[in-house]
Amino acid sequence: MKYLRCLVLSLLCLTSFFEGFSQQTFEQRLVEIKQELAEKSDSLVPGLNEVAQFSVVHAPIQDLIRGVSEAHQLNVSVAPDIKVTITNNFTNVVIKDLILFICRKYHLNVEFVNNILSFSQFIDPVITIEIKKPKIPYVVYQAKNDLLTVDLENDSLSIFVKEVTKKTGKNVIVGPNVSDRLLQGMISLMPFNQCIEKIALTNNLQLYIDSIGPFYILDDLANTKDVDNHLSKQKTRSAKNRYSKKEVIENEDLIIEKLGYNRLNIRAINVPISEIIREAANESKMSFIFLSKPEGNTYININNISFENLLRYLLEGTDHTFIVEDKVHIIGNRINEGFRKTKIVRMQYRTAFEIEKSIPEFLMKNLEVIPFEELNALILSGSAKRVEEVALFLKEIDQPVPNISIDVMVIDVRKSKTIETGINAFIGDSAVVTQGKVYPGVDLTMGSNSINSLLQKFETVSSVNLGRVTPSFYMTLKALEQNGNIKIKSTPKLSTLNGHEAELTIGQSVYYQEKTQNVTGGVNPIITTTPRFSKVDANLTIKIKPMVSGDENVTLNIEAEFSDFLAPTIEGAPPGNTTRKFVSQVRIQNQELVLLGGLEESSKDESGSGIPVLSRIPIIKWLFSSRKKSSAENKLLVLIKPQILY
Question: How far is 321 from 385, CA to CA, in rounded Å?
Fold first, then answer.
């Protein structure tokens, strides 16, 4: 029994420990991780004090931690449910500082088992908030006798009113300035009206009874005059509607009712705006000045509105506005003195040059915008309201514009192979001297003397008499093989702002001569030749327009054109020109490499001539024919890598 009691106590202690651990905040856990890293690095895990230097782009955090552990001989375990990709560049960072940074940045937890580090997602403690229920005041109502019993001790006025209305069915409302008032008092079995009146009296409140509802209004004593005026006007209007309702509807195009608390009910049928403002100001006891009267009539039917909001609605869309100075509402034209405003808006990230073209046209009404390039600012002058609207708009669009650095690699690979063999025999007008090349390829012209000397040697070796050739006979012997392998690599680097086009052109020009002959008539015509030089261009042109999206993907509009010279097909003619062009639109991630182009061209050519029949017999056909084989391959590759810079 003694051991069982000890075991139970131990389990309770462990449970309490883990519950305390689970309730730790993330910041508390980070402090413990920092201390444990410092302790482990001193003796048990010396690799934590080593320095790392590496860069990762969109790599899972598991790969980063495993790479660090292999490089610095750490024993790690990473939970597979951690879904985090990391992009960072670390230079000369201590491993324990790196681990603490990763934990803080990605909300991770590290547990230590001897020299093993176990990474997992930190689970925030569940915080339970006890919602305190509001105290319900004691209210009992006897509907048969209209008797009310209440017991109040620091009870909320707003909750008391709701409870009374719910249990009695009578409408009791409170003013906005006293809704949080606390009530005291106890009344037993008193008629409803008297009970509410005594509650108001003992708690420094004023009770107003509107017989139309009826409504019972509890408000502060300071609003007595406003509410009395409202109630008297309600009674007057009620009597008027009761005895001469038809006359009121036909003759009154403007009806303004004051609700108290400076709120108005307004109904107007085709009434001048200036008259509505004047009557509303008089009814709500507001001071106003017309510097110029707004023109036009309007229809309006709106309830429970303040005088200032009424002015905003009535003057919206007109040339008039208002300002408030010393509680006086000054109404006038937006461009009049007192309503004009001049403000300098400095741009933090965007250039002020031509940015006014981005401002919507409706905001530019009655407004002058002047760029101030020395301060990278705009001077706004005009209607005060328009100035503030445009200043707010400029602040919204004044965001950092990314700069895109674009690495472009153009690789042009050309391979060619030509084999030319054969013997050709000719007869000329005179003897030909033997000459030509015998190494590394054979391209030899043999005269009659050399041929006869060669025939004589064959006769010496064999008994066959091959005869002799005439002095004007000669032969050409060819056995050539040519290989070409050309690789052209261009690595331009472009930079441009987001949404702006970057263009690169690298070219070469070749000039050729054109001659023009002019003949002057007469007995002895005169011929003059005028030379003129013209050129042929071969360019490498790349146009790229990048657009960066919110997720830092880059959309590239690419237009590339590559041209090169060709050997002229006619002697004296200008060189030819070959062009390869493509237009593409791609969407790739930041610092991702994309391959474009891949334009490949292959050509093969095989030709020959020889003596009929003999040129087709194996082996000896090489003595009675000439052949030429050629093949060529051209390949163009374009690699593009954008990088977003801020």
Answer: 8
What is the spatial distance between Cα 227 and Cα 101, in angstroms, rounded to a whole number?
Answer: 64
How confident is the model at residue 623, as a pLDDT? Answer: 61
pLDDT at 223 over 60: no
Neighbours of 463 (CB within 10 A): 6
Q: Positive or negative, the Cα torsion across 427, 429, 434, 435? A: negative
Q: Where are the alpha helices (DSSP H) in 416-484?
A: 448-461
Closest C-alpha among 388, 384, 385 to residue 337: 384
Question: Which residues are CB-contacts of 208 (< 8 A; sequence separation ≥ 6)?
Answer: 216, 217, 219, 227, 228, 231
**509 and 535 Cβ atoms separated by less than 8 Å:** yes
Strand ranges in 359-466 using DSSP code E only, listed in sequence order: 367-372, 377-383, 403-427, 435-437, 442-446
Tell whether omega for the bond before 525 is within 30 degrees of 0, i.e. cis: no
CA-closest candidate to residue 196, choices 229, 144, 147, 159: 147
Q: Which stretches of 169-319 are DSSP H helices?
A: 192-202, 224-251, 273-283, 307-315
pLDDT of residue 15: 45
Amino acid making up residue 584: S
What's the mean pLDDT in 215-233? 61
Q: On the CB side of 107, how many CA atoms lie within 13 Å of its CA?
A: 9
Pairing of strands 297-305, 263-272: antiparallel
User: What residue has token string 């093949």?
Assistant: 631
Tokens 């040697």 belong to residue: 457
Q: Is the pLDDT of residue 426 over 70?
A: no
Name the residue with tokens 């001297």. Answer: 433
Q: What is the DSSP letter of 622?
A: G
Can you tell me the distance from the alpha carbon of 443 to that of 421, in angstroms, rounded to the nearest whole number?
A: 9
Assess contact for 301 and 266: CB atoms under 8 A.
Answer: yes
**Beta-carbon-side half-sphere exposure of residue 10 (alpha carbons within 13 Å):** 6
Residue 284 has pLDDT above 80, yes or no: yes
* pTM value surpassing 0.85: no
Percent of residues, the chain, with pLDDT higher than 90: 0
CA 210 to chain centre: 59
HSE toward the beta carbon, residue 365, CA cutoff 13 A: 8
Give the distance from CA 208 to its chain's centroid: 59
Closest listed residue to residue 163, CA positions, set 142, 179, 139: 139
Measured distance CA(516)–CA(219) in Å, rounded:
108
Q: Which residues pair with 596 in a beta bridge?
A: 638
- What is the distance, to the nearest Å, from the Cα of residue 460 to the centroid of all Cα atoms in its chain? 91
Query: Is residue 631 predicted with pLDDT exceeding 50?
Result: yes
| 17 band by pLDDT with thresholds 50, 70 and 90 | very low
